[in-house]
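Preliminary data (for renewal application), adenosine-5'-diphosphate complex.
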Amino acid sequence: MSFRFRVFGLVLLVAVIAIGVTAWLSIRLTALEIAQSQETSTRNEVTTVTEIQAYALRHGTWAGVDKTVQRLSIANHQRIRLTNLYGQVTVDSDHLANRAARAVVSPPALVDSRPTLKFPPEMLGAPRTPLEQKTGITELETKTLLQIALFRGTVVFARCLTDLHVDPPPVTLNEFGVPYATTGVEDSHDCGTRVGDVGAAEQPYDELPVKPCRAEKDQAKCLIKAFGERVATFTPEPLQLYLGAVTDDATNLISRPGLVAGSGVLILVILGTAVIARHVSLPVRDLTVASRRLADGHLDTRVPSGGRDELGQLSDSFNRMAAALEASEQAQRRLVASVAHELRTPLSNLLGYLEALQDGLVPPSRELFASLHDEAELQRRILDDLQDLTLAEAGHLTYRRSDFDLADLVDTARVAHLAVAEAAGVRLTAETAGPLPVHADHDRLRQVLGNLIGNAIRYTDRGGHVALRAFPDADHITVEVRDTGCGIAPADLPFVFQRFWRADPARDRATGGSGLGLTIARQIVRDHTGDLTVESTLGEGSTFRFTLPTTK
Ligand code: ADP
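Predicted structure:
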């Protein structure tokens, strides 16, 4: 499977799992909440039904029940809707809260204010009294009829007071389960004396004399009304009570809009993932193609450098690697060309003389053989130096380090080159400041010093001076080889340490130089964590200086 599809698949998997878990958790928590709220609403339903029934028993009418409904709705944080048995709304807490009434789903509870008649146990199955036998009517029947009258009277009385906005007295259920008012109507404290006959039912209400106590007047009025209407058949009609708002169960939570929204999110996730996968895989694909081209030998291949993220860094690293490979290949090519060039001249010379000797064109002589030997010697030196340099640059040149005094080495090197200097007519001096302890490869440093002294003598005319100096400098030791020779042109100075570079190829080759000496010398010094530098003025002389860390 391609990298792109793996990224796509992984991101998609994570997204789908995240969405799934979130949805599952939401449904579970909501279902739990609904279950809890249903439990609470069942508890509240019982108290609400009881309180509303109590209102009807006390007031004998549903008029004014809206205040009770509002109070219960606020207290129980519940929506309450009362309808009659035909569905006509009596009160709705949504209306009371100035809202449009919402639909109701839960089944209604019945609020019936009619009392259920009970009989005192001692009256059931009691033997008939003589009076009962005589009249044929039992006491139970008489008392039952009385209960009807009592109930009707109580209801009419209570309803009348309620209509007049007077709070009816509290009711109690008697032994037959029928409600009756236990106390009279409470009145204000400044109530005066009662005047007039309130019991006279025939007297029209408007003609009654004025009573100073409003409640008593109302009570009388209602008593008269109760008396007049007690035969009438009416109790507040039973009502249906709906509780709670629109209720949903857990399965309904996965509704159509929910599914549509979920699918939308899923599509977004898929599209987003595809974009991410493409974004991530494009640079990887570029890198793959570029690596193949590089492997096929196209060393100039590069990938577009892309940003600062990990993939951008990878692209940059790839480009750096490709550039290094290209540079290395070019250097290798240049080296081979240089080596070929270096070896061609001495080899041509050798071949020319050998052919001439073979053909008898040149007589063999001691001088000729010495010259041919020098040519062969130069070639061997070039090859030896080349090998040293290759090993040093690859970090494979082995160093046998030991502690010694660099001042001794400088003095010894001077002595070793004295004969050559004398032959060249050059004065060679050395000035060393005390013991200069170093931890280094003695032979390799002698090679460095020998190269610098040899060059200085070689490029200094007869009568000149080559001065060696070695002195401590902070935590370093500096060794200086100063000559009063021909010097090096400023334009040539940057190339002095390049392999096979010579200021004057013809002359320098004639002196037997390989053109590798300074390159190797600098590599050896650098491998000892030091450095080799040059200062030179054309026609005045040069100073080669190398530093090494001291061991103290
Ligand atoms: P070679 O073996 O040819 O001397 P080097 O690497 O030692 O090779 O030197 C490279 C070139 O640097 C020389 O050919 C010469 O032109 C120049 N050079 C080195 N040392 C000196 C010096 N002391 N004075 C002037 N030129 C120098």
